[in-house]
Specification:
- Strand 6 and strand 7 form a beta hairpin.
- The chain is globular.
- Helix 3 packs across helix 7 and helix 7 packs across helix 8.
- It is built from 10 helices and 12 strands.
- About 35% of the residues lie in helices and about 15% in strands.
- The strands form 5 sheets. Strands 1-2-3 form a 3-stranded parallel beta sheet. Strands 4-5-8 form a 3-stranded antiparallel beta sheet. Strands 6-7 form a two-stranded antiparallel ribbon.
- It is of the alpha/beta class.
């Protein structure tokens, strides 16, 4: 079977050079492997994700010359898939409802997870079943979290993944999901968390190669744990370098990194960006830093 890659942006802002690098890397690797490249729209955040952002993303990708196989998968249209996965974990006693507010979680946290969020101590894990049932029946808002200690105990003793970086040399990485604590599987106002949704999507889309930035390297530990628990296949992983801004920080929407549309408006061509990012030969108009 031909390899299947995917580029999966969130329509909560404009694409920047970091997104372009990841999309072009996926396209290069898919072409070299004789595979297919899919587009996934990760739009579970109903507050920040907007149709106009998705439209801009599609325009930017077309401008870069990227062609995707088939129609995009929109996470907002597949809540039932995530619900079935969560129910499978609940049925095995591996997920529990958490009634703590974000403020409460932060107040009692014992550290930070790899994303910098407060590490949850499992306050609601030991609630009495009757208390839980009554609070849920009363409609009290709750997130659902993974009981990570129990989950790790029932998963394979050796959780690893195949890592290739940007090359062809394979390394075997050992997953360390403990660093995520009892992470959220479904928030109070979303069909699924990033961790659960991406694992389900990758399996249903038969993704063979996940190509994404090094900033998501630690997430793979959580994903490998969920894949093991749900009996899902593990793709090959390729965590690539990040594009840095003038301050040496990774480009991001939250840092208001210059959008591709703005660079296009300033006269940059798609070929200029391809050259600057190392995907085409020639002199570069931009000084791009990768790390």
């Amino acid at each position: 079977m031909a390899p299947i890659f995917r580029f999966a942006p969130s329509p909560n802002g404009a694409l920047h050079l970091g997104h372009a690098y990841s999309a072009l890397m996926n396209a290069r690797l898919a072409a070299a492997a004789g595979g297919r490249l899919l587009l996934r729209i990760e739009d579970l955040d109903r507050v920040r994700c907007k149709p106009e952002y998705e439209s801009a993303i599609r325009n930017d990708l077309a401008w870069l010359g990227l062609v995707f196989a088939g129609a995009p998968r929109r996470q907002s249209e597949h809540g039932d898939d995530y619900a079935r996965a969560l129910e499978a974990l609940r049925a095995r006693g591996l997920a529990y409802p958490c009634f703590c507010s974000r403020g409460r979680v932060a107040a009692v946290a014992s550290g930070r997870d790899p994303d910098g969020a407060p590490l949850y101590l499992g306050t609601c894990r030991s609630l009495a079943p009757r208390d839980v049932a009554e609070r849920l029946a009363a409609g009290e808002p709750a997130a659902w979290r993974l009981d990570s200690a129990r989950a790790r105990a029932v998963a394979s003793a050796a959780l690893t993944w195949r890592e290739f970086g940007e090359g062809e040399t394979e390394a075997r990485c050992v997953a360390d999901p403990v660093v995520w604590g009892d992470f959220v599987l479904r928030g109070r106002d979303a069909a699924a968390s990033y961790h659960l949704a991406v694992v389900v999507d990758d399996a249903l889309q038969e993704i063979s190669d996940v190509v994404r930035g090094r900033d998501l390297f630690a997430s793979t530990s959580a994903h490998r744990l969920l894949q093991a628990l749900l009996g899902l296949p593990a793709p090959r992983y390729r965590h690539h370098r990040l594009v840095l801004d003038a301050n040496g920080d990774k480009m991001s929407k939250s840092a208001a990194s210059t959008p591709l549309g703005a660079q296009r408006a300033q006269g940059a061509s798609a070929e200029d960006l391809r050259v600057a990012l190392g995907f085409a030969p020639g002199p570069s108009r931009f000084a791009v830093r990768l790390s």
